[in-house]
Every structure is written in structure tokens, then in C-alpha cells.
Amino acid sequence: MTRIAFIGLGNMGGGMAANQAKAGREVMAFDLSAAALDKAAGAGCAKATSVAEAVRDADAIITMLPAGPHVRSVYAEQVFPNAPKTSLLIDCSTIDVESARAVAAQAKDQGFRFADAPVSGGTAAADAGTLAFMVGCDEADFAQVEQVIAPMSRATIRAGDHGAGQAAKICNNMVLGISMIAVCEALALAEKLGLDPVKFHEISSQSSGQCWSLTSYCPWPGPVPTAPSNRNYEGGFATAMMLKDLKLAQEAAAKAGAATPLGASAEGLYALFDRLGGGGKDFSAILEMLRGKLPA
Ligand code: NAD
Question: Are 142 and 134 spatial neighbours (Cβ–Cβ below 8 Å)?
Fold first, then answer.
């Protein structure tokens, strides 16, 4: 399994494709953006002129695209008609569960093996090859999916059948969106109460308020040097992307009849921050809004 077609070389896909090349695999890369394609070529990938050309001789096809409609159209219009039936199809984009199941069903009808395999970890982990993958696929295909994903991964877990990877991703990011707002509210309150937010970080990190948003991604600048709060909230995981994931969670909850009131509040707060101009900032910048400030 050495010939990889990689479609979608953006913030995440660029680093992921580079790690496939670094592992000695032959990577045929394609993106609509010439700049993204040039960057992938600089990292050891071969440039394809279309999806059709990229997938023609592939053993495995990896896609890392913005959202459900992109994934549906790339597979239906370009991958299925041009890829060898023996190729293993792996979509790593974060998309709605319904689209993931629809593409999986079409793939199966046409004789392909397919996995939804969204990721957690952000651009730093994409570059370092340390993403966590949550996989929805037939049990019989998992070992091969794991082998293809290995150069990009620190943990690969089979969540269940098709769509289960996306379900896990949506639920995980709902926790993240809610917990970030909780941490930001507490930091803003600490400040108002005259408590040094950095001291609060130190205390809460060793108390029951401890969570990833506080200790690994602190929205207050200082305590966690690698966090985007130290770079004026540039890079990282954009508010617009978090909003997309929270919308997916709410749509899924409405369809499944699940009650997710805190998820709904988090979506509303991120939508407001997006409308105020924060869409391009890292999602931890919502701290500024909760401190009564507009995005810088
Ligand atoms: P991005 O916008 O930087 O990259 C998407 C790339 O897809 C772009 O380069 C675009 O040109 C390309 N593309 C779009 N349509 C295409 C087509 N038809 N053919 C070929 N290329 C096409 O986005 P990203 O940040 O890399 O995110 C990609 C996916 O990963 C999203 O689903 C996102 O939700 C998910 N994700 C992102 C992060 C993050 O921290 N950025 C973390 C986890 C998951």
C-alpha cells in the first residue's frame, strides 16, 4: 500500500500529505489552489492536474476537504469514475454523519471500501504526524485503514461502522466548544473579582476545574506558551471551523432527538463572535468577547 492519492492540501491536508511522503510513500497530490499544490510538491509529493489524474493508480485515496458538499461531489463526480476498485477510500474531513453514510453507501454499491476518519489535534499535530483519528468502517477493513493512516497518527481508534467516526468527532468538538466557553467565563470572572487570571489558571489546573481547554490550550496569554492566545489568537483552530462543528452537532441532535442545551448555547455564542468579526481567529479568542471586547 504505497501509492497514495491525497486530495485537499489546506491547513490540515498539507502537513498530512507531507508526512505520507516522508514515510516513503508515493503521493500524488491535488488541490484547487496552486499555492497549496506547490507547497505539497516542496514536501515531496507529486503534483496532479486533477482529482482524476491523482486517483488513477492509487492504492489508497485520502481526502481532507472543507465540508460535506465538497466530499459528496469529489467522490461522486471524480473519485468513483476514475479510481481503481481495489483502492481504499479514506475521508478525513469533518462532515455531517448523513453525508458520510451516503458516500459510504455509494462507495459500497460501486465495489469500493470506504472509511470516514476525521481527526483531532489541529494543524500542529497535522504537521507533526500526531493526529488522533476516529474511524467509521467495516471491521474487516480497519487494519488496512490503520496502516494507511499510520504516518499521520498518534492514535487511531475504530469508533464503529460508517458514520461513527464523524459522530465521535462531532460529540468531541461539542465538549471542546462548551469547555472553552466555560474556561473563558471563569477567567473573565476571575479578572472582574480582582483575582489574577494566571494565578486562577495555576489553581484550577490542580483543582476540579481542570480540563484540556484550561491546561493545554489556555485562552489567557502566558500560562501555556504554545497556545494561540500568545499569538493574538492567530493560527490554531478557527472560530468559523468550531462554529461549523457546533452546527453539525445541533443538526445531528435535532435529527436524533437528543437534548443538547449547552451545545446550542455554545453554537449561539460562537455565531455571535463570528458576526462580530472573530471568525478567522482561533476559537479561544471568544475570551475577548466575554471580557466585553471586540476582536482585535
Ligand atoms: P482548508 O480550507 O485549509 O483546506 C481545504 C482544502 O481543500 C483547500 O486547500 C481547498 O482548496 C481544497 N479543496 C476544496 N475543494 C476541493 C476540490 N473540489 N478538489 C480539491 N481540493 C479542494 O481547511 P482545513 O483547516 O485544512 O480543514 C480541512 C478539514 O479538516 C475540514 O473538514 C475541517 O473541519 C477539518 N479539521 C480542521 C482542523 C483545523 O485545526 N484546521 C482540525 C481538525 C479537523
Answer: no
Radius of gyration (Cα) for the chain, nearest Å?
20
For 119-150, write each residue's pLDDT tens digit: 998 888 999 999 999 999 999 999 999 999 99
Q: DSSP letters of 91-121?
A: E-S---HHHHHHHHHHHHHTT-EEEE--EES
* CB-CB contact of 147 with 123 (8 Å): no
C-alpha cell at 9: 492540501
Helix (H, G, I), strand (E, B) or coil at 149: helix
Give the residue, out of 6, 30, 65, with the most ligand 1 atoms within 8 A of its beta carbon, to mutate for a pocket test.
65
Q: Measuring CA to CA, how many Å separate 180 from each of 209, 277, 285? A: 12, 19, 10
Q: Which atom of ligand 1 is nearest to the CA of 36?
A: 9
| Domains annotated on the chain, with CATH | 3-162 (3.40.50.720), 167-290 (1.10.1040.10)
